[in-house]
Amino acid sequence: MNVLKNVKMVLLRGDRSQKQVADEIGIPVSTYAMIEAGHRFPRKELQLKLARYFGVTVDELFFGEKGHETRTKPA
């Protein structure tokens, strides 16, 4: 199993503890820790709650800064 840590969440969390962020969002610290470590991917509602907490978009937080780009074929 290839686990990819969510570095963006780690950076945005800064000096705050995982427990502090989890408490402020209203989720168990174990859930937050698993998401940040890449062992769990949150449902859409939690993705949005985390993105709002950190002041970024869901795409920025979970899918990279460019998000989902639509590719068009040359005419």
TrEMBL record:
PROSITE patterns cross-referenced by the UniProt entry: HTH_CROC1
GO molecular function (one): DNA binding
Organism phylogeny: Bacteria, Bacillati, Bacillota, Bacilli, Bacillales
Organism superkingdom: Bacteria
Keywords for this protein: DNA-binding
This protein's name: Helix-turn-helix transcriptional regulator
Pfam families for the chain: HTH_3
Start and end residues of each HTH cro/C1-type domain: 17-61
